[in-house]
Every structure is written in C-alpha cells, then in structure tokens.
Amino acid sequence: MSEHILLLPEGQSGGRRHAHSACVARARRGGRLPTRDEWRRAQPRPPGLWTRLRSRWRA
Prior knowledge:
Blueprint: E1 4-7, E2 17-20, H1 21-29, H2 36-42, H3 49-58
Antiparallel strand pairs: 1-2
C-alpha cells in the first residue's frame, strides 16, 4: 500500500487532496470517511422512468 491516498472533497472534483494511509484508515474505522460506493448508496435516488412519465401526464 502507498504511504499516501488520493481523496476528492465532496462536490469539488478538481480539488484533489492527499492523506496519509494511516490517517485514512483511522477515519474509516471511525466512520468519518465513506468510500465512493458507500457515499453513492447514501444519496437519494432520482425518480424512475414511470414516475417521471406519470408526472408529465398530470401537469
């Protein structure tokens, strides 16, 4: 494993940062640093196709 890990701050894909792997591991154990997959699962899902079509008919 590398000594440093590349991180992307939320909403700032151009603002890449690095962190020491030990600090990242400590934050992961503490629940303060989700992986990208964990973050994506926590985001609200967009409305499905059926919901979008139904809303157009009502408007």
